[in-house]
Design a protein that fits this description.
The protein is an alpha+beta fold and 95 residues long. The chain has one domain (2-91): Alpha-Beta Plaits (2-Layer Sandwich). Helix content is 35%, strand content 35%. It is built from 3 helices and 4 strands. Helix 1 runs antiparallel to helix 3. The two termini are 13 Å apart.
Length: 95
C-alpha cells in the first residue's frame, strides 16, 4: 500500500473556495481510478487556507497512473498547483 499525503496552502485567501471545489472534484474522480483505496480532502479549521489530501494507493504503479490521468494533468496541475504552496509527504503508516 502506498500512502501519499499532501499539504496544500492557498497563496491567497480569496482562492479558498475555488481550491476547495477543485479538490473536491479531484477526489471524486480519483476515487474511481484503478488502485485508489482512499482519497480524502480536508480543510483545516484552524487555518482555512490549509488543505490536506490523504491518499492510499494499492501500488506505486497505480499512483504513477494517477499522476498521468486526465483529471490530474488537465485540472490539478494547471488549476490547483499555481494557487497553492504544495508539500507532498509520501508516508509510512505506523499504526
Amino acid at each position: 500500500m502506498i500512502h501519499n499525503n499532501v499539504i496544500l496552502r492557498a497563496k491567497r485567501p480569496e482562492d479558498i473556495d475555488k481550491i476547495s471545489g477543485l479538490l473536491t472534484q479531484q477526489a471524486e474522480v480519483s476515487l474511481t481510478e484503478q488502485g485508489c483505496q482512499r482519497f480524502e480532502v480536508y480543510q483545516s479549521e484552524s487555518d482555512t487556507q490549509t488543505f490536506i489530501l490523504i491518499e492510499w494507493w494499492t501500488s506505486q504503479e497505480d499512483l504513477d497512473r494517477h499522476k498521468n490521468a486526465e483529471q490530474f494533468v488537465q485540472v490539478y496541475i494547471p488549476k490547483v498547483v499555481p494557487l497553492v504552496d504544495r508539500f507532498p509527504h509520501p508516508s509510512r503508516r505506523l499504526v
